[in-house]
Design goal:
Chain lengths: 202, 255
């Protein structure tokens, strides 16, 4: 197909928001139950883990979209020649940060899925409050998770900004400036939610 | 200002021919009030002696209009791509470092070959086809307010600065860059040009087209003519979104 690259890039942009961005938001909000105590978190986690057709939901809403977004994203990241040194404009710095955080997130998410979901799948662990409390009891792991959550939220917020441009929703300079403010708000709000949840485990 | 024996130091990335390795050479010139990079290069050409006092070959560079409308004298000055004719020595940090725009093939010293930009303009059909076998008469009128913003887009001089500044235009990608994309918006804004708008949109939906833009927005920051390149790109993003669905489902509004 002649416009294969066009379609792949558009798909990459779309999947980052729907479903991955929505999933991430939902994930952080469910985690936030941890601030209300062990039982509240376990109930929420249990509800999510026992949704009907959960394996299909996971495959089509999480695994496949995230894998496509990750692999094609790494390709995009490595075809850029970052130049924030000489051209240190805000958008160019965010452009570079988007690529660095993307590559870091591939590592973080792979580790996170292995440590939690995969361990549950092979029956080596149970997804509950204690599991996360054990993981986050290690200060290095806690730091890794804080950085992971903040980079994921940054990547989503900044990706939302470029999604709006890529699909031609924000066109003018003013529209793009206002969407910068909006996505900054998204970044702050989701970061607070995500980090508060992490703090609740220690 | 005005002190005796004041000098200006230039550090120039030189290359003897396309396939040769580049090297830096320093030059120290007497300062003159209001000198720009081109007048300094002319001075070096007049007396090609480097800082070590050795006679060398004159530095090669491109220039034409000397008033920032032709785009020929673009080069990387202290790390940023711009026109050397409007780069005033008084406003630059020394030593002044001159480099060719290496996004393009370097011909010699500071001269680059910008052919790829002209090839891209052909690829995206950046013209208004008016040839016919008989007189087609006058075209449709263009609203004055539309003409005014379209005029801004028409200021593009194909200088290559937006491509040099773009992180996505490099040897690993075939991205055509902001300049030819903005020309698509200009030609599609023209009432006669709009009769072929779908052809241009489909051209930029191909390999190395619009989708390769990563929104670093260096182009709009660097454009010496202040062309709203990122607005053009976002506007084309919207139009190609619609075109994508029209291509897939078919439409009575192909044009």
């Amino acid at each position: 197909m002649e416009n294969r690259e066009f379609l792949l890039r558009r798909l990459h942009s779309l999947l980052g928001i729907i479903p991955i961005g929505i999933f991430l938001t939902q994930h952080l909000i469910v985690n936030h139950f941890a601030t209300q105590g062990v039982e509240a978190f376990n109930n929420a986690s249990h509800f999510m883990a026992n949704l009907p057709f959960v394996i299909f939901l996971e495959i089509f809403v999480i695994y496949l979209p995230i894998m496509y977004h990750a692999f094609y994203g790494v390709y995009i990241a490595f075809t850029a020649k970052n130049n924030p040194g000489h051209y240190s404009y805000m958008r160019n710095i965010l452009f570079t940060a988007q690529r660095y955080t993307g590559v870091f997130l591939v590592v973080f998410i792979a580790w996170h899925v292995f440590e939690t979901r995969f361990q549950v799948a092979i029956g080596a662990a149970e997804a509950d409050f204690n599991m996360m409390a054990n993981i986050l009891g290690n200060p290095w792991m806690f730091a890794f998770y804080v950085v992971g959550v903040i980079t994921a939220v940054f990547h989503l917020a900044n990706g939302l900004w470029s999604f709006l441009v890529t699909w031609g929703i924000t066109q003018s300079e003013k529209a793009q400036r206002y969407s910068t403010y909006f996505t900054l708000l998204v970044f702050v709000v989701l970061s607070v939610i995500g980090v508060r949840a992490l703090l609740a485990f220690v | 200002m005005g002190e005796a024996a004041k000098t200006v130091i230039f550090e120039i990335e030189r290359r003897d021919s396309t396939d040769k390795e580049s090297y830096f050479e320093k030059f120290e010139l007497p300062y003159r009030p209001n000198m720009n990079v081109i007048s300094a290069l002319m001075e070096i050409r007049r007396n090609p002696v480097n800082m070590e006092g050795k006679k060398t070959t004159p530095v090669n560079w491109d220039m034409n209009c000397l008033e920032e409308v032709c785009g020929a004298c673009s080069m990387v000055i202290n790390g940023k791509a711009r026109q050397s004719c409007t780069a005033l020595v008084d406003q630059l940090e020394q030593p002044i470092r001159l480099q060719p725009m290496k996004t393009f093939p370097v011909v010699r010293d500071l001269i680059v070959d910008r052919s790829r930009m002209f090839d891209s303009l052909k690829k995206v059909k950046a013209w208004v086809p008016i040839d016919g076998t008989h007189d087609l008469g006058e075209g449709p009128r263009m609203p004055e307010r539309k003409r005014q913003w379209a005029y801004e887009l028409s200021k593009c001089m194909t200088c290559g600065v937006c491509l040099e500044a773009c992180p996505n235009v490099n040897e690993k990608s075939d991205f055509i860059g902001a300049a030819p994309l903005s020309q698509v918006r200009l030609m599609n804004a023209h009432p006669t040009g709009a009769m072929n708008r779908d052809e241009r949109l489909n051209a930029i939906m191909g390999e190395g087209g619009l989708a390769s833009c990563g929104n670093s927005q260096n182009c709009v920051e660097s454009c010496p003519k202040g062309i709203p390149l990122t607005t053009s790109i976002a506007a084309l993003n919207r139009e190609t979104t619609v075109q994508m669905f029209r291509n897939f489902f078919g439409s009575d509004h192909a044009v």
